[in-house]
Design a protein that fits this description.
The protein is an all-alpha fold. The chain has one helix at about 10-80.
Length: about 80
Amino acid sequence: MKAYKHSEETRLSLLEQSINNINETMKRFEKRFDTLENKIDSGFVSVNKRIDEVNNRIWKNFYWLVSACSTITFFIVKYSPNFIK
């Protein structure tokens, strides 16, 4: 294998070109990851919205259950003659 002898200017130019290629590659990676991050973030927005809907439904069912139990207890106490003695 033959070793090539390059001048300092040539070596510096090759180094600059390599650094530029690495920089361009890193920019492409960053752009792709930004796109992927935006897609993931939009997915989390829809998941959070769905969780909020389910949470609201659970609270509505809980309030309905509490009010129904209170109403039933009220009628039992009011109309049962032997309930409290």
